[in-house]
Write a structure and sequence with these properties.
The chain is mainly alpha-helical and 70 residues long. The protein contains three helices and no strands. It has helices at 3-16, 22-34, 47-66. The longest helix has 20 residues, at 47-66. 14% of the residues are buried.
Length: 70
Amino acid sequence: MPFWVSVILALFGIIYFKYYWESTVLLFISDLLYGIKGDRFWGIYFVSFFISLIVLILAEFLKKKIRLSK
């Protein structure tokens, strides 16, 4: 599966499901297999993992703020 398909599915899962930690695991494994050290991101290997973790936390925070029924 191409990387961009994995990212789209992970973002969909984060938005649709509550606490979709599987997306961070998927992108962590992807970083383990295909990640390279990049100069743009201060030399870290797990760029997509950290981005997915931040997106997951922000999405859950926004879901709680937007929820009108509770």
